[in-house]
Amino acid sequence: MTTLPDRRLLLVHAHPDDESIGTGSTMAHYAATGAHVTLVTCTVGEEGEIHVPQLAELAAAKADQLGGYRIGELATACAALGVTDHRFLGGAGRYRDSGMMGLASNEHPRAFWQADLDEAAGYLVAIMQEVRPQVMITYDANGFYGHPDHIQAHRVAMRAVELAAVEGIAPAKVYWTAMPRSVLEAGLDAFTESSDNPFAGIDSVDDLPFGTPDPEIAARIDATEQHAAKEAAMRAHATQIPATSWLYSIAGNFGAEFMGVEYFTLALGKKGPGRGPYGWEDDLFAGLDLDGRDRFPVAAAGLR
């Protein structure tokens, strides 16, 4: 790539399907409006559950071929989102899905949870050197909900920002995925209508493993025009997201508002102009000088 658009967005996700569930509408929105969207996926998702009975033998404990199948699902999802620049961190299969926290799969020698931080971050810096993104999206320090690969994706992404800052090529803004508590409170009842409810028995948002106070949200991206693209991308991940998923149940209640609006906190960089009672940005590039000079300064971030 020798010529790239003025706006360049980098996303770092742990497994195939995370990009569609958490940031699908944002990705589709920026791709449709001419930004260069680069998706980096850290594993191929070998340890995922399989919700297609005919594919049950692909499971990690059986043929151990699920990861290869999910590469195809991810390609279909990216096509639905209009994203043409997708990479696996270190190449497909370099890092293995670690499985949920505390499982024996965490100890696999190729498990992403066991990855050398600087080595993994180095692969991401190489992508930053090529693409020079002004904005990066990843998870918070808890990986949004505590999955070890999400936590490691956060660590790798933030270490890569440190290393890139030394070279003067770090993104000017770094966002973490988030969900406002007000949105969770409005949608909690919809969980009970799903046969695939991961939060059965939870009656209060205080008991959920995620949720950000509204004043701490920095950006609300209204990409409702892309809600159909997000849903198509999610349906491409059929092994992981059954038709009865709570995600579709909530979408049935809230429609484009649920599928098309995504929220972020600002981890590094200067917040741009916003609106509403909390000044939420409606553009992740808000306030940036897009001629390439606006980079996050090392001293201001306390980086090495």
From TrEMBL:
Top class in the EC scheme: hydrolase
Alphabetized GO MF terms: N-acetylglucosaminylinositol deacetylase activity; zinc ion binding
An example Gene Ontology biological process: mycothiol biosynthetic process
Alphabetical UniProt keywords: Hydrolase, Metal-binding, Zinc
Highest taxon of source: Bacteria
Keyword ATP-binding belongs to the record: no
Cofactor(s) for this UniProt protein: Zn(2+)
Cofactor binding note of this UniProt entry: Binds 1 zinc ion per subunit.
Binding site for Zn(2+): 15, 18, 150
Assigned EC number: 3.5.1.103
Annotated transmembrane regions: none
Catalytic activity line of the entry: 1D-myo-inositol 2-acetamido-2-deoxy-alpha-D-glucopyranoside + H2O = 1D-myo-inositol 2-amino-2-deoxy-alpha-D-glucopyranoside + acetate
InterPro entries reported in the protein's UniProt record: GlcNAc_PI_deacetylase-related (IPR003737), LmbE-like_dom_sf (IPR024078), Mycothiol_biosynthesis_MshB (IPR017810)
Family to which this protein belongs: Belongs to the MshB deacetylase family.
The protein's role, per its UniProt record: Catalyzes the deacetylation of 1D-myo-inositol 2-acetamido-2-deoxy-alpha-D-glucopyranoside (GlcNAc-Ins) in the mycothiol biosynthesis pathway.
Name recorded for this polypeptide: 1D-myo-inositol 2-acetamido-2-deoxy-alpha-D-glucopyranoside deacetylase
Organism in which the protein naturally occurs: Micromonospora rhizosphaerae
Organism lineage: Bacteria, Bacillati, Actinomycetota, Actinomycetes, Micromonosporales
Gene: mshB
